[in-house]
Amino acid sequence: MVHPPNAAAHELFIQVDENSDELRVDVLWGHIRDYVSEADVEDFQLFVRYPNGETEQLDLEAVGVHFRAYVPTNEGGDYTFWAIREPGTYTPDDGVPQLSVHSAKVIVHVGEGSERADEAVDADLEIVPNSDVRHFSTGIFSGTVLMDGSVAQEAAITAYGPSGEIVEAVTNSNGEFELPFGSAGTWLIKTNVKIDEAGTLGDEDYELISRTSTLIVDTEQPSNSGSSNNIGSLGAMLLIGLLVGGSVSMLALRKRQ
User: Who contacts 80 (Cβ-Cβ below 8 Å, separation ≥6)?
Assistant: First the structure.
């Protein structure tokens, strides 16, 4: 759905679909599960860090109102994608003109291989997960916010959950935060840092810089496979028992006849 509410509600985020031999990477400008707004592909850049540690800028193509790239999965391990949007100015309801700087990140693990989820990328502002994103389901999710390579203290954190949850926190003196994830599914974690620094972009003046970055976390569904397998095995054993018992009864009946 395309819907352009006020600019302050927008976030940049990345969604990835895994196919048999490639990853389809979509860059979206809007708000997860609510809307995607029209934008110019020239305003966005997308990068990938491969499992071997090499990085590359990817070519984006416009697909409807969002942007897409494809990455072949030639090796197993963590593929880390991050995107940045060209800075722009806007004036929110408080009337203070701001320079808006947005970035986004997502980590996708493919097969078996190196795990680099806890390693920072070359982004001005980013969320680095402390929790194991590969196996995380529900509970306390923790991470660290970095700005220009250093920990960001008192950074605002907001997480949007798959069931409509909104959870908020603030980073501590080490740039760390904790969030309770009560349901499994796709969570968007957003951090925002405001810097009192005035300047000019083109012909537009601004009084502060607002930096926003997101991290998409796809949590696992709690596994009940063990219980299901046990129930299935028990059912199979009962069925076999009934069949065997029936066979024995029929054999005994025949002998009597």
Answer: 48, 49, 105, 106, 107, 108, 116, 117, 119, 121
